[in-house]
Amino acid sequence: MKAAKWPAGLSTKICATPMGHRALGTRCRMAPKTERIQFLRAVRQLRRVRSFYAAAILLWTGTAAWTGWQAPGSRQMWVSVLLLAVFTVLLVTASLALRRLAVPATGRPVHHAAPHKLLSTRPHAHA
C-alpha cells in the first residue's frame, strides 16, 4: 500500500485543537510568547503609523490653508481638503484600533534581565 502524498505546505502533524479534537494536516498553535511578541510588534507599528498620519494631517492642513488663501475654491484647495479628510479618518481609525488593542499588564517586570539575588545579611568567613 502506498503512503499518501500530502500537498506542499501541508503539515502531517496531528495537533490538538482548542475544542480538544485532534486535527490532521493543520499547523499547531504557536507558543503564547511568540503571540505576545507579534502583538507588541503590531501595537508598535500602529503607533508609528499614527504619528505618520498626524504629520500628514499637519502638512495637508497647512497646504489647504495656503491654497485657500491664494486661490479660494480652486481644485488644489479641494484636493488638499480631501487629503486632509482622508488622513484624519486614517488617524481616527488607527487610534481606535490602538485603544481596542490595549496592552494587557502581565504582572511581571518589562525588562528581561536576570533576577538580582538578595545580598545575604549574614557575614561569611573568608578563606
Q: Write the H/E string, N to C.
A: EEHH
Spatial sequence of strands, sheet with the most strands: 1-2
Main sheet makeup: 2 strands, antiparallel
Which structural category fits the helices and strands?
A: mainly alpha
The dominant shape is elongated
Gyration radius, rounded: 28 Å
The unreliable regions are: none
Number of strands: 2
> Which percent range fits the helix content?
40-55%
The portion of residues forming beta strands comes to under 5%
Average pLDDT, all residues: 76
Distance between the termini: 73 Å
By DSSP (H or I, 4+ residues per run), the number of helices equals 2
What's the layout of helices and strands?
Blueprint: E1 14-16, E2 22-24, H1 32-70, H2 75-100
Antiparallel strand pairs: 1-2
Helix pairs in contact: 1-2
Structure description:
The protein is mainly alpha-helical and 127 residues long. The chain has a domain of 55 residues. It has a two-stranded antiparallel sheet. The model has no long low-confidence stretch (mean pLDDT 76).
What key attributes describe this structure?
51% helix, 2 helices, 127 residues, two-stranded antiparallel sheet, 2 strands, mainly alpha
What's this entry about, in short?
The protein has 2 helices and 2 strands; from the N terminus they run E-E-H-H. It is elongated.
